[in-house]
Model the fold of this input.
Amino acid sequence: MPDPQISAIICTHNRENYLGKAIDSLLDQNFSGAYEVLVIDNASTDRTREVVESRQKNPLLRYGYEPTLGLSVARNTGANLAHSPILAYLDDDAIASPAWLQNLWDAYQQWNKLAIAGGKVTLLWQDASPPQWLSTGLSENLGAYDLGNQLIWIDRPGQTPRGLNYSIRRSFLEQVGGFDRALGRVGKNLLSNEELHMTELALAQGWKVAYLPDALVAHHVAPERLCQQWFLRRGWWQGISECYREQLAGRSGLPQLTRGTERLLRGLHRSLQHWNDPAQRFDNFTYAYGQLGYLKAAIEGMLNATKNT
Done:
């Protein structure tokens, strides 16, 4: 087989019920060149390996095992095992559209300073439906991502493509030393913001980051996530993740306490303002709750810095 031009990588942990559909969507790509599909089993204890082995007659598919739990660790393992200059990451509970890889590949060929690209994400609700308290903003925590139908050059980390539909140029990834292991999900803890950190690094170093609307992926909404407790927990970890990202960028210390307190009060105030609107009320309350996680991580960081001086 010729060397692959792009590598489609799934990092998975205990998602046997969704994984098969994700793999099948990658094996059925309409890609004009050569590509490979890598599944990185991140310390799974379910039937993940069996799901992969049942499809390994397809020469495109390879299996790798990473015993150290953590999404960033698994992504780095995938990059190390991949044989191509472009790495495309799909979540294990997502389904790629048939032209997903082609749209990504074409963009990297057109712009040699493109470091990161991702596309639109729609939600698959299965047998459920969106609850009344779920706002458009909070649905982004389920993976929804839609910046419209035109190419957009991302100029700030907050617009970063979703990690479930995410690609990166290998040379840039190697330049920055891989995905930072201090960020990204580890088992059931919901750390995130590794993609925002990458965007920040790319923009600071003169690279480009793009939203490609035609690089479409659909994401399953797990029924267990459709409860307010999950969103509060997700908000808490989002706050912690944002604190860590700021610390990596050298923006730690007392100013974090000011920022976190101001955002906490602002979220509570807006929640009260929207008391008669269940979706906006809960959206703002979740935002405020996340600032408690942010402040906790900021205080811990300051205490640790004091101990080390």
